[in-house]
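testing teh design pipeline on a random one, pls ignore if ur not involved
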């Protein structure tokens, strides 16, 4: 049973990428993908129950020793504890919903089997990452999801924007992977082991601050923290199921998961990076008009919350993994519901082309899913997002650290901005007429299928279940937080509502251009690093490839 998630995902990939796919066709590939994804989900639920309620942590040695070098002995071994079980269930729920959704969203694609295979391989490497017992096996999954993200973001390779976005994503991910690999080598040098438990048993004073900073940078690049966030919005050029899978519970949360497992970082630096990312992602999302990019920058902001929580001690680590779980469900629901809106509106993603949408245009189920997930994102009381996100905000208030008060203030501002752009999304799409009389959406174009219903039902049930399971455990210990501090986020929801309605109807904001260009990060990198590298490569091409080496390798003439 404990190997079923890995085996079912691997078989799904092999069947849909091999010549068997030509025999079974698209419909056969969809049936097999649904069945094997369901096996992954059910087995992950059983594993979660055994580990959490049965207190049954487990090691399984799959293929024996992989690398043996001196005192280092690396095995192909999977390990399930509380963190990996929670993460495995989250990945399985989101993956199953995305697989069901993609069968409708991509049904007219001529290479549907290949797309399903890419999704399965991506999820397989994510399961390898979360179930690995050591850093090196984790790095295999870390590398695998990076390569698969390149294939998925650039899946529509005939589109220049998609190809460029995939290249941008793989470059930033290579920086992340290089820093992480360098950190893994030096962790073995300092601690003599790559097992998670043995690394944590070592005195953290033996690990240099330079090494912990390099490890933090590797996790930052994968989890789109500030400076390394530039690939996030461009990855929206991929299909909507890819956006839901990458930005909900897989690629962007990998760095947070590694930090949760290790916890050997400088708290001040972690709090600084996380709080700045939270407010930056919120501001960028507020000034975007592309529906998917708004949700993408929302992911960036929520990852900042998780990063801050990692720097808040032992309770903060638990709150971080709790918010990771709840965020995965409602963020996947937001992306999938946004995809329904896009499909039913003729493929338009710009919210200024919407206005006056109703459930009759984009299915009532999709509309309600978008509404419920949006309320969870804002942290409305008694939603799963409220219990996980507000716990992080309250912990930052009571945590004894010189920078914790500043982080608390920035997180409150980020919560206010989150409420603002979420309300702005609904006002632009459903309550305010931007589209005019010429843009008419036909209700007959709305997608309708039992698979969409299954996908939304699984996610909504997961959102509701996490109110009681694994998300409200820390709220009881925060009884000593002042009442005003606890209720302040609710007031921010109201403030965000009034600010959003004002922003939508206003036409003169002097800071719109600066924030809409995402503070010029892309232009800064393009005019400094990219142009410099291109100039240097032109010199090496002229002096090396075209000059020196071309002369030495020129054919001999008689």
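output:
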């Amino acid at each position: 049973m404990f190997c079923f998630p890995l085996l079912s995902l691997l078989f799904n990939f092999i069947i849909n990428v091999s010549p068997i796919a030509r025999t079974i066709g698209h419909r056969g590939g969809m049936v097999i993908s649904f069945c094997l994804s369901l096996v992954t989900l059910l087995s992950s639920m059983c594993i979660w129950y055994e580990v959490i309620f049965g207190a049954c942590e487990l090691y399984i040695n799959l293929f024996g020793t992989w690398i043996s070098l001196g005192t280092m002995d690396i095995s192909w071994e999977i390990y399930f504890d509380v963190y990996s079980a929670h993460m495995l269930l989250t990945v399985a729920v989101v993956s199953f919903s995305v697989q069901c959704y993609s069968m409708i969203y991509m049904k007219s694609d001529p290479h549907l089997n290949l797309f399903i295979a890419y999704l399965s391989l991506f999820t397989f490497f994510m399961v390898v990452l979360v179930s690995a017992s050591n850093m090196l096996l984790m790095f295999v999954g870390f590398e695998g999801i990076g390569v698969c993200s390149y294939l998925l973001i650039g899946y529509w390779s005939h589109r220049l924007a998609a190809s460029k976005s995939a290249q941008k994503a793989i470059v930033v991910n290579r920086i992340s992977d290089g820093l992480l690999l360098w950190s893994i080598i030096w962790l073995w040098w300092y601690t003599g082991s790559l097992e998670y438990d043995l690394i944590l048993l070592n005195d953290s004073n033996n690990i240099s601050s330079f090494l912990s900073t390099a490890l933090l940078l590797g996790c930052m690049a994968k989890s789109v923290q500030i400076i390394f966030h530039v690939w996030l919005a461009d990855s929206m050029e991929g299909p909507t199921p890819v956006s839901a899978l990458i930005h909900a519970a897989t690629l962007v949360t990998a760095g947070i998961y590694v930090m949760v497992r290790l916890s050997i970082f400088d708290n001040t630096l972690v709090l600084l990076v996380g709080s700045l990312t939270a407010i930056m992602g919120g501001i960028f999302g507020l000034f975007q008009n592309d529906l998917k990019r708004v949700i993408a920058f929302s992911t960036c902001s929520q990852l900042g919350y998780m990063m801050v929580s990692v720097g808040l001690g032992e309770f903060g680590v638990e709150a971080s993994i709790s918010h990771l779980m709840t965020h995965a469900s409602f963020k996947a629901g937001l992306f999938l519901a946004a995809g329904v809106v896009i499909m039913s509106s003729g493929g338009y993603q710009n919210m200024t082309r919407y206005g006056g949408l109703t459930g009759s245009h984009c299915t009532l189920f999709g509309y309600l899913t978008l509404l419920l997930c949006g309320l969870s994102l804002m942290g409305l009381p008694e939603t799963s997002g409220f219990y996980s996100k507000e716990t992080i905000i309250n912990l930052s208030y009571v945590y004894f650290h010189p920078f914790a008060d500043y982080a608390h203030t920035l997180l409150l501002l980020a919560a206010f901005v989150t409420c603002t752009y979420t309300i702005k999304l609904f006002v632009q799409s459903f309550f305010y007429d931007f589209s005019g009389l010429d843009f008419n959406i036909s209700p007959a174009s709305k997608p309708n299928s039992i698979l969409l219903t299954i996908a939304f039902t699984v996610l909504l049930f997961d959102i509701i279940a996490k109110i009681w399971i694994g998300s409200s455990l820390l709220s009881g210990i925060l009884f000593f937080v002042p009442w005003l501090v606890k209720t302040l986020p609710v007031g921010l929801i109201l403030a965000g509502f009034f600010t959003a309605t004002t922003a939508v109807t206003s036409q003169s904001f002097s800071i719109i251009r600066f924030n809409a260009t995402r503070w010029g990060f892309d232009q800064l990198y393009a005019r400094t690093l990219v142009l410099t590298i291109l100039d240097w490569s032109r010199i090496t091409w002229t002096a090396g490839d075209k000059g020196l080496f071309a002369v030495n390798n020129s054919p001999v003439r008689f």
